[in-house]
Design goal:
The complex is a heterodimer of chains A (about 140) and B (about 325). Chain A has one domain: 3-Layer(aba) Sandwich (Rossmann fold). In chain A, strand 1 (about 5), helix 1 (about 15-20) and strand 2 (about 25-30) form a beta-alpha-beta unit. Chain A starts with a strand and ends with a helix. Chain A is built from five helices and five strands, in the order βαββααβαβα. Chain A is globular. In chain A, strands 2-1-3-4-5 form a five-stranded parallel beta sheet, with helices on both faces. In chain A, about 40% of the residues lie in helices and about 20% in strands. Chain B is mainly α. Helix content of chain B is about 70%, strand content about 0%. Chain B has 14 helices and no strands. The interface of A and B includes residues 16, 52 and 56 of A.
Chain lengths: ~140, ~325
């Protein structure tokens, strides 16, 4: 079974997207005081992009801390990245950075809290991706 | 009253004590993204400008005067009007940055004009912007919410609609030219403006959502109704404005799809659901590609394009990744 882990800052765009997906998901907390989730099965990470104009700081610090744990990182299977096309070349850059660092695919990119079309595509895509994972593992 | 003023100490801002981390995050984003029009080699567009037909040139100048008007309003009225409503001192500081960058944006259009256009053409377009009913109407709708007596949360709604929706009937055109390899340096400058406006809309929308947390459920419903009514009215004006501008080159329907798409994004910045259905938001892929271009239309030999003048690096902070 492939789960979801996500980060959403206090602005809540990614949280709203995950809520509409209705597929559950563990939230990486905004506050460093709150404990990190410990997924015990493979998961897909949904992550917003915080890059400046030069692409720096694309991956939120809390997500970096989450991924810094080798056990958690080992279960990561793919990344879905949020962003805003108005940021040009750095649109959803967090996805590319994580994908490269962790050697997993960028499964999808969406803007802000996602559209109806995004929700449908992510649901269908995740279902298919789960199927692929199962057949690889079998 | 006078006593109270005397007894309340005037407070200096302390950036090392934050009430809202978002303030510092956005401050950093905005200051790192700071730019000036002089950084963009607009003069490389002189030849391209000459290839536009006279009516295309007139359209472009008019569109830019319309954008200048919105930037002027946000610079002189919008951002300053939100300062007294600020919940934190840091929010006020961010708003002062927003106000100044709007002045830079407004100033940039004049840089484009002085580089590409003749004075009489530009003067005529500024006159047009004062006389155009739709442009004046939408600007007035926003300015009404900026009045000192207006509701602080409605002011933020109006501000997000200006930043994240009203600009786009204008931004469409330079993106369209860029997709046809025309005025590519001007498009680079506009992309810098688009990037700033995206942060402004995000931040003001975020502060709006924080504000909502403090009001009653009834008030929340009233504000939501107000927001949807306002975007509907603004859309109505925008559709007419777009038709007036773009009918001549047959692009009105294309512009409208872009308007629907951006209206939905503006509503998302306020935390609301979409108004327009997905099939109404199918933006021309060439326009989307022009928005999030990497360095399309540019190469090192022709000297067109500012991507390397401005410098573009996709850097990650390796120090943060203790893998």
């Amino acid at each position: 079974m492939l789960g979801l882990v996500y980060f959403s800052s206090v602005s809540g765009n990614t949280a709203r997207m995950v809520q509409r997906l209705q597929m559950g998901g563990l939230r990486i907390p905004v506050s460093p005081a709150d404990p990190m989730p410990q997924p015990d099965a493979p998961y897909v990470l949904i992550c917003p992009t915080f890059a400046d104009g030069m692409g720096r700081g694309a991956v939120p610090k809390r997500v970096i801390h989450f991924l810094n744990d080798p056990a958690r990182r080992a279960l990561l299977r793919g990344v879905i990245a949020g962003g805003n096309r108005n940021f040009g070349a750095t649109f959803a850059l967090a996805g590319d950075v994580i994908a490269k660092k962790c050697n997993v695919p960028v499964l999808y990119r969406f803007e802000l809290a996602g559209t109806e079309t995004d929700i449908a595509r992510i649901r269908a895509g995740l279902a298919e991706f789960r199927g692929m994972e199962c057949s690889i593992m079998a | 009253m006078k006593d109270q003023i005397l007894r309340t100490p005037l407070k200096a801002i302390n950036w090392n004590r934050l009430d809202d981390e978002k303030d510092l995050e956005v401050w950093n984003r905005l200051t790192v993204n700071f730019w000036l029009p002089e950084k963009v080699p607009l003069s490389n567009d002189v030849q391209s400008w000459a290839t536009l037909r006279p009516e295309e040139r007139e359209l472009t100048i008019r569109v830019f005067t319309g954008l200048t008007l919105l930037d002027t309003i946000q610079n002189t009225l919008g951002a300053p009007s939100m300062m007294p409503d600020a919940v934190t001192a840091h929010e006020e500081a961010v708003l002062s940055n927003i106000a100044f960058m709007e002045a830079v944006h407004a100033r940039s259009y004049s840089s484009i004009f002085s580089t590409l256009c003749s004075t009489p053409e530009v003067d005529a377009a500024f006159r047009w912007s004062e006389e155009n009913t739709h442009l004046q109407q939408k600007a007035r709708m926003i300015v009404e919410e900026y009045n000192p007596g207006a509701d602080p949360l409605k002011r933020k709604i109006a501000s997000v609609f200006l930043e994240s929706f009203l600009f786009y009937s204008g931004f469409y055109l330079p993106m369209y030219w860029s997709s046809r390899a025309k005025l590519t340096n001007t498009a680079d400058l506009i992309r810098l403006i688009i990037r700033d406006e995206a942060v402004h809309g995000y931040y003001i929308g975020y502060k709006y959502q924080r504000g909502l947390e403090k009001v009653s459920e009834e008030k929340r419903q009233e504000l939501k109704d107000f927001a949807f009514a306002m975007i509907f009215d603004l859309y109505d004006i925008e559709a007419k404005y777009a038709a007036e501008l773009y009918d001549g080159i047959g692009l009105t329907e294309d512009v409208k799809a872009f308007l629907h798409y951006n209206a939905n994004k503006a509503l998302q910045n306020l935390g609301y659901e979409a108004l327009f259905p997905p099939q109404a938001c199918e933006v021309n892929p060439a326009i989307l590609a022009a928005l999030s271009t990497d360095s399309e239309n540019h190469d090192f030999f022709s000297g067109s394009g500012s991507s390397y003048v401005i410098g573009k690096a996709v850097a990650t902070e390796d120090d943060d990744w203790d893998f």
